[in-house]
Amino acid sequence: MSARLIQGSQIAAQIRTEIRQQAEQLQAQRGIVPGLVTILAGEDPASQSYVRAKQKTAGELGFHSLQEILPADIREDELLELVGRYNRDPAVHGILVQLPLPGAIEESRILYAIDPDKDVDGFHPVNVGRMVIGKPAFLPCTPYGIQQMLVRCGIPTEGADVVIVGRSNIVGKPIANILLQKAAGANATVTVCHTRTRDLAAHTRRADILIVAAGRPRAITAEMVKPGAVVIDVGVNEIGRTEQGKRRLVGDVDFDAVREVASAITPVPGGVGPMTITMLMLNTLQAAQRSAS
Ligand SMILES: NC(=O)c1ccc[n+]([C@@H]2O[C@H](COP(=O)([O-])OP(=O)(O)OC[C@H]3O[C@@H](n4cnc5c(N)ncnc54)[C@H](OP(=O)(O)O)[C@@H]3O)[C@@H](O)[C@H]2O)c1
Q: Which residues line ligand 1 (CB under 6 A)?
């Protein structure tokens, strides 16, 4: 039987409708328009396209949207100065520095300079720490989006065996921390796998919910999935171009085979991807709401 498709694009559209309504309310009641600045240094085409997409979504939601496009040879002190300026700007509630940063700039120095109250990417150690101990925090956008997909699709996490493949700071580790919290939409039993894991398949086959963020095209095959499992495929891998020159993308999961085993699965594209930008907008709205209280 073919698995139910978890359509991230539809869930994201629903959340964006809610964000728009709340943003209108915030403006009507408090005169505050959520403000987001995206800072891009260099000319990496993928980064340019991510930043364009973030700007477009912010604009569609009626946010005050600013963009800083900087040369690849910008100095670290200049970037720090810019971040400091936006930290002090009351019209800006969210600061997003697009990664990777070019050249000799130490990313952590820039990210840690962002005011944690404006850190809508959720990468500042203050927010990471708050997330780990279960205090209100800006959650990193991709893991936050995954949790929202599960909640909004009615997939229970409480007591579920969740297995995560990948331990990056932006996906694997935060989703593990989010889902093991003693809280609604969490309370899972979490296992995190990586390249040093012995017998990966033995772990993935135990999963009620399998979350894959390895960056390895079609690494998860049908034999590695328990019948009836929910499979969340975070991977985005380019495997060539179509005849029209468009990028051909696949996930980390062998979609066609695994969908015959799983009960629900996210497609690539159209699964986790659309949730990520949407959660960035939700974090920005929440930063603006907090600034009013
Ligand atoms: N849709 C979205 O919005 C979104 C957002 C972020 C990322 N992504 C995609 O998600 C994927 C992962 O991104 P990332 O930034 O988390 O990647 P990353 O930093 O490269 O981390 C990959 C992780 O997977 C582990 N891994 C790699 N191959 C493995 C294997 N064969 N068996 C077990 N573990 C393995 C690595 O283990 P080690 O730690 O041992 O090296 C590492 O922890 C990429 O395809 C990326 O493009 C999508």
A: 142, 165-168, 170-172, 193-197, 200, 213-216, 219, 234-237, 272-273, 276
